[in-house]
Structure formats: C-alpha cells, structure tokens
Amino acid sequence: MFETHQFNTILDKEFLLENYDTLEYLLEVFGDFLALMPEEVEEIKAAQAENDKDKVVRKIHAISSAVGFVGGIDLSDRMKKFEVKAKNDPDFDIANEESQAIVNEIDAFIGIIQQEYNQLS
C-alpha cells in the first residue's frame, strides 16, 4: 500500500489517503493527470504569448481542480485566487511576473506528480 510512501511535501498526503483507497486508483488518477496537463500548460503559455487573458484565465480555471485532485491543494487554491484577480482587474497583465510564476509552479508540479508516479509504479 501507499500509506507508508513518503510523498513530496507539496502534496497533501492526508487528502490522497482519504480519497484514494488503492494504489491502483491513485496511479490511474496520476496517469490521467500526466496525460493531459503538459498540453494544457503549453496552451496557457501560448495564450500568455498572445496576451490572451481570457484564455489564460479559462485554462487556469479548468485545471485548478485537477491539480487539487492529485493532492496539490495549496497550488489549486493559489490558482483560483490568481484566476479571480486576473478576471476582476481589467488592467491585469497576463504576461507579468506573477503570471509567469504561477505557470512555472504548475509546470514544476507536473514534474512532481511524474516523480511520484514513477516511484509508486
């Protein structure tokens, strides 16, 4: 079982243990996440390059729950706050440092999930 696995501290282990009763189920969810997220992040980066704030906000909204479902509760919360801020500020620059930082954090998070998936497989 994965109860004794030392998850990366960025992941909410308690959430994972409460919501995924078998290693197989957790690996399936991690695998689905890994299959989808790299393309989503590339679409966010492309939208940033095009200065398409609406698309960036939609994409961040769309993937924030998925990040939470794989144990990234804190990152998911930050993504939701970013979404609200960007949506409500008409002058928000989608290519600013804050925007770049959240996308970099999502990218790094995908790498963490990949490491966990590899270790648990």
TrEMBL record:
Every HPt domain range: 22-121
Pfam family, one: Hpt
Gene3D superfamilies, alphabetized: HPT domain
Record bears the keyword Transmembrane: no
Tree of life domain: Bacteria
Regions that span the bilayer: none
Keyword set, alphabetical order: Phosphoprotein
GO biological process: phosphorelay signal transduction system
Gene Ontology molecular function: protein kinase activity
Presence of keyword Magnesium: no
Sequence positions bearing Phosphohistidine: 61
Name by which UniProt lists this protein: HPt domain-containing protein
Lineage: Bacteria, Pseudomonadati, Bacteroidota, Cytophagia, Cytophagales
